[in-house]
## 1
Amino acid sequence: MKRALLLFLALVATGAPGIEAQGNCSVPHGSPGSVQSQGVGGLFPGAGWVQVSVFSLDTREEFTHTGRKEPYFNEGDLGLRSLLVTGAVGLIRGLEVWGQLSAHSVVFDESTGARESTGMGDARIWLRAGPELLGVAEDALPIWLGLRAGVKIPASEFSVNSKIIPLNEGQRDIDLAVEIGRTFADGRVVVQGWGGRRWRAENREAARRPGDEWFGYLSTTAAVGPVSLRVAAQSLSGDGFKSNGFAIPSGDRNMFEVFPSVVIPLGRGAMEVGARIPVVGKNLPAGNALTIGYSLGWGGSPEPDVEALFPER
């Protein structure tokens, strides 16, 4: 069971591909719980976007509990493929609802044999509030300021079988984050960031309570003709977990990652292709990952949308 839980932690950590149109959280919690945005500002009522993204990781290395990058035990090889469908819609001025569904296929192959699982991961839903909710015009502020609150719910059954790699963590999480952003150069440059806290409930089936986490994110997106370049970084710092009521200090996990990507207009939407590169970490996979996503929006937005970021030349 311990090995299966460790493998699932790898799945959790590699979740959140950074390839979203206006937003994406992780799978199951976006590694550092990111929700990546392509524009700054809120959605008009009825306006929205949807994004389909895929995430691919193959690695033979992990960041151990000491923070060292080392090969997996028993010549282990982790392979993960994830599909995420993320969307958002404006409810009233200054208030939006976001949601995400995820599905995963994970294989861990080692000298004693291979284990694999395929199915649904976690489901997530958030409410995102901006200054318009309090009657403050967005263009009256030097920066956009918002508050995002969400919950993660397991979308499939959690297995305690040691021969099965679980595809969700089997418990609920609650996120709270403060978001800031600003556009420059007539909307062709976007700087955005957020930070927050994740409170994690107990998985009673496994008698395990994951440690609460702090997370942060910062990105800069610049349009160069019809193409947009994005460089992002995110961090995660989590407490050690408890097993059967006993604290495991060496089970704490952290990560700092960078995400270079390119966004290209395609049809009525945009495609983003990027890489996820871990720099330092602890108790998490160490391999680079490939991310690809396609985004499509509708309705208006108080701030630059896809067309504003990628104007015709």
## 2
Amino acid sequence: MATSLNMSATRSLLDIAGKEDRFQPSAAELLPIQLQAIDERFQDRVGKIKLLQNRAETGGISEIRRAADVVPLLFAHTAYKSYPETWLFEQKWDRLARWLGTVSSFGVAPVQGEIDGLDDWLKRLEEQGHYVSCSSGTTGKCAMMDGTMADLTFAADDLLSAIRWTGLNPANDRRIVGLGQVAMTTKNMMTGRPMAEAFSLPGIRPFSPDVPPITIGGILEMVLLRKKMADGTAKPSEVAHYDAVSAQREKDMASSLEQAADALIESRHMPLHILGMLGPLFKVAELVRARGYSGKDFQPNSSFLSGGLKRAQVPDDYRDYIFDTFNLADERICQTYGMQEINSQSPRCTHGRYHVPPWMLLLLLDESGEQLVEPQPTGEHEGRAALFDLSLEGRWGGVISGDKIKVRWDRCGCGNHSPSIHADIQRYADTAGGDKIACSGTIDAYVRGAA
């Protein structure tokens, strides 16, 4: 797959990746070159991404001069799940390929020959150079986002760089312990590889639970069956299959936590690097305590990488409980803010704020996602998060998220001047009004029509 990244402003921002002082420049300092880089990307992509061309024509945008010009060009996060579900359930792969092409930077050719389900289709797309990442879809449709090998490589390197920036210095001196099942995708496997190579003790393999892998196709099957059961069209045999698979997955989940607790106890004599979400780690901590172990039994320099709670229900003192169980400390915890639709990580600083990297423009919007909240010199300001990630090649980098955030554009207490996000991040979907992005309906309608 050909790419065209001969772009001076874009390249100068991406060259900052990995530098220790990358969060020092302020938003005001970076904005001119960020806008130049986004305009470079826009001029290169507007004739290639059908949805972008539509958004530009609808918004009357022909070039990027100010931050407000970017807003009409942003894709609602729902754009990546705007295909008709029937196409997926009825395995209309040619139509899905056309749909994917409307939100991708490079054309998506139909896959030739027989296709054995979603997992096979995704694998065959990889053979064309399209590394499609999918959200789990456990509560609804799967979002599908195209990417290149360069995107996957950048994401992997950026994660390791974010870990180092938070103060964790991998030196092949610890055992990596994963807590649970992870969707078996090329992106997930590639993202963790540089980290594993940097942290793992020689001759000590990272631990992951011995349970059947989860695949996107397997998750989709359960979503489909759940919908058929809800509308009363499921056959008795399908209901029985759903119940059996659900029961087995619950057993696998419980087993993965039990195995993780055993692995942590067995490896307590060596420094650890624990991977997972805080919710499952709390459950693992309970299992470890029930076996008679606590912080006094674990090495004092273990570390933990987490993306947060993700709606997990835990007691108020969950963090102290986890830290006391595994002898962890704040300075050895790496948390990052990110999302499936973008490629880069915003690591959390010592003052509990997520710092946005220079190659990613943070835009704060009103709740509808239509109006830009102008950056202010002081104070914290609340709104909907929108981001433009210049590291992305395989798809357009601008997205309106479903996150309600609090932003500061002035200097953080940690000493860095980059825009920073308060750790208290909410989902609009969890609020009384729900997640209602004004442009999402028109985007979905256009994409369906163009496909």
## 3
Amino acid sequence: MEKNIPLDLYKIFCAVVRTGNMSAAAKELFISQPAVSMSIRQLEERMGSTLLVRTSKGVRMTPEGKILFDYIDQALMLIKTAENKFMEMVNLKTGEIRIGASDTVIQNFLMPYLEEFNIKNPNINIKVTNKTTYESLKLLKSGAVDICFINLPVDEDYDLEISPCISIHDCLIGGAKFKELSKSGIRIENINQYPLLLLEEMSNSRRYINYYAQKNGVVLRPIIELASSDLLIEFVKINLGLSFVIHDFEKSRIDNDTIFEIPVFPPIPKRSIGLVKLKNVPLSYAAKGFVNLFKNKTKI
């Protein structure tokens, strides 16, 4: 039969056992001695057994009292440990944040925020999973990551809370072999006259370029498709063809010596990088701490 005994009665009982008498327990708990005595009587009545024997030197446990103390004291210690661990997480003394993002976004956008958060919260474990936009969203929905940073736009999804972070724009680049195009530019309807190097179809950046081209009546026909923007740029540098990259992330590599930006008409519309979390799903304190730092820095 369930006793439904208040936790405070157990705490008072253990305090009396540890201190050896009612007075010392009362001082430790900041309550009166009569309150301690009354609590012990209530506990004994509910348990149906004498737990403590009062002596001139204090109290001693009965065999039943010792059994109860051995287990209850351990339980109270576990509760205290749980409280301490909880407060460590609340105060960002421990915990983990799990982030999903593409390698391009991690390297060119997230890195300084991850570095600052790590400096301020060295005991928080930061786990970053390198995935494409839609793979990152899949991880988010499965609970494998807390938040993700993705290339927008994406299909509308009412389960997601999306906050655009920064505006980015794509550009066309070529090597020295295509230097003249950097002066004259190229119309998108003529793009397939040149060798094209593009990201793989699963990339949201590739999907965006595909959408832009299709809106202008063009289906892109790349000769090479890769998963890495870095590798595409290296291929451009050795004149294997033209490629689309995010100008904001790669402008330092467009040196007008080995790599040139080529104007494309009509211009490619700007897009955004977005921070995504699940609606109505609370973040851990670690994840919330990172999001707060990120939002304060980016003013989103």
